[in-house]
Amino acid sequence: MKPSYSLEKNLIFKTSDIDDRIYLREQKGKYQLIRRSLSVMLILLFVLVPFIQFNGVQAVYVDLLQQQVHLFSLTLFPQDLLIVCLIFILAAFVLFYITQFYGRVWCGFTCPQTVWMLMFNWLERRIEGTHNQSKSLNAQPMSLNKLYKKTIKHFLWALVSLFTALVFMSYFITVDELYLPFFSFNTSETTVYWVLFFAVCTYVNAGWIKDKMCQHMCPYSRIQSAMFDKSTKLVTYDNFRGENRGSRKRTQVKPQEMGDCVDCDLCVQVCPVGIDIRDGLQYECINCGLCADACDMTMEKFNYPKGLISFTNEKPANNNWKRHFGYGSVVTITLLSMLIWANVWQSFEVNIIRDRQALYRVNQFGDIENTFLFKVRNKSSETKFYRIDVNGLQHAKITDSVKIEVLPGELKISSVTVSVDEPLTEYINHVGFKITDIESNRNIVKNTSFYSGSGGW
C-alpha cells in the first residue's frame, strides 16, 4: 500500500482559512484511548509532583530568590545548571529522533497545547452539545439559553486555567506558601500577577487560539518536514484504495468504479487543526490519529477493511542502522555527558582566597603564617561536616580547627591559618588543601600559594 503525498500542493499557505473556527467533533477509538490515558497520566504527574515531600520540605522546587533548584536530596546552584542544559539537549534530540520514525506524535499525543485544547473541547461538548449544536448555538442571536451556556463554559474554562496556573506556580512557590494564602487573599501582588498571567495564557491558548497555535505559531510545525524521510510513519490516506470516493448506503453493494471512501467527512470533523487528510501530507497535521479512528469506525459500519487512514510509510527503510546513526549518536553522547557530570559532581563546593590584609606574618614563636578564607557551600539537604588537610608543603600545619560544620544550602566562610616552623628557600611555595566530606569520604583538592618572606630567614 502506497500512501498519497502531495507535499508541494498542500504546504501552500492558505490565508482564507486563518479565521475559520473549527468545531471539533468528539471521537472514540484506539488512538483516542491512548491519548486520553497519556493525558490523564501526565496531568496527574504535573499536579501531584509539587505535593511530594522529602525530609519535611517540598521535594521538587525552583527557588528563584535563592537561585536554587531542589530535587529531593539534590540541590542545584547556577554553577550546576550544565545538567539542565544537557537535559534540554537530550529532550530535544529524543524528540527529533522519534519524529524521524513516527512524525509529530509528540504534538498529537503529549503536547500540553493538544492536551489542554482537547480538555477544553471536552468541557464545551458537555455544555453546548455536539459540534453541530455548538455551531448552531454560535449562529443564534443572544438569548437566555445561549448566555447561560456560554457563561458556564467560560467559567469552567477560567477555573481550569486558574488551577493550571496555580499548579505551574507551585513549582516556584512552595505549596504551603501558595494555595492557602492565595485563596485567603493573603499573598503578594507579584504572586497574584504571575498566577493571573499564566491563567490568561492558558485560557487564550486552549480556549481561543486552539489550532492556530499548531498551524501558525508553533515553530515545530515548520521544521518537522526536515526530519521526515520516506520511511517515516505518518497518518496518511490510502489514495489508491479510497478513490474514487462517493457517498452510498450501508446496504448498497459497493459500485465497481468507486473506492472505499464513502465521503462522510468525519476525518475532517474530528481533526483538531481542521485539515482534510485525503488531500495528502500537510504541515498542519499533528499525527493525532483521530481521523484514523473516525475512518475505522465508518469502515466497520460498511463492513470494509479498516486502515483506509492509518499510520503508514511510503516505503520500508532499507538501512535501519543509518536512520539510527545521526540522532542516535547525539542522544548517546548527551547521555554519556550526563553520566560524566553525575560522576564528577560533588555535593559541596570549595573556594579558597588569601587574606588580603597581609601576604604573610611571623607569629610570636617565629613561625611563618598565611591566612586563607575557605568558602564552603553545602549543596545537600543535610548538615555536613568537612575536614581540612594541608599537603604539598613540608612542615606545614593548620593552627585553627580543621573541622567545619555547614548547614543545608549554606555558604560557610571560615578563616584557616597555615604555619611553617622551618625555613623555606622559596618566596612563593605551592600548597594544597584537601577538603573531605566526613560522612561520604568524598573530597575536593584545591591548590594555592604560600608566601614565606624574602627567600627564607
Write up what this structure looks like:
With 457 residues, this protein is of the alpha+beta class. It has a domain at 348-451: Immunoglobulins (Immunoglobulin-like), CATH 2.60.40. The chain has 15 helices and 16 strands. Strands 8, 9, 10, 12 and 14 form a 5-stranded antiparallel β-sheet that branches. Strand 4 (68-71) and strand 5 (74-76) form a beta hairpin. The longest helix is centred in the middle third of the chain and has 26 residues, at 144-169. It is elongated, with a radius of gyration of 32 Å.
Approximate helicity band:
40-55%
CATH domain class name of the domain at 348-451: Mainly Beta
Which whole number gives the mean pLDDT? Answer: 86
Uncertain regions spanning at least 5 consecutive residues: 1-19
CATH-derived topology of the domain at 348-451: Immunoglobulin-like
CATH architectural label of the domain at 348-451 = Sandwich
Computed CA radius of gyration, to the nearest angstrom: 32 Å
Percent strand: 15-25%
Question: How many strand units?
Answer: 16
Globally, the shape reads: elongated
Main β sheet profile: 5 strands, antiparallel
CATH superfamily of the domain at 348-451: Immunoglobulins
Judged by helices, strands and strand pairing, the structural class is alpha+beta
Separate helix tally:
15
Task: Give the termini distance in whole angstroms.
Answer: 93 Å
Secondary structure elements and their pairing?
Layout: H1 7-10, H2 30-48, E1 53-54, E2 57-58, E3 60-63, E4 68-71, E5 74-76, H3 82-102, H4 105-110, H5 112-128, H6 131-139, H7 144-169, H8 175-183, H9 189-209, H10 211-217, H11 220-223, E6 234-237, H12 239-242, H13 266-269, H14 290-301, E7 309-312, H15 320-344, E8 348-354, E9 361-362, E10 368-378, E11 384-391, E12 396-398, E13 403-406, E14 411-420, E15 428-437, E16 443-451
Antiparallel strand pairs: 1-2, 3-4, 4-5, 6-7, 8-10, 9-10, 10-14, 11-13, 11-15, 12-14, 15-16
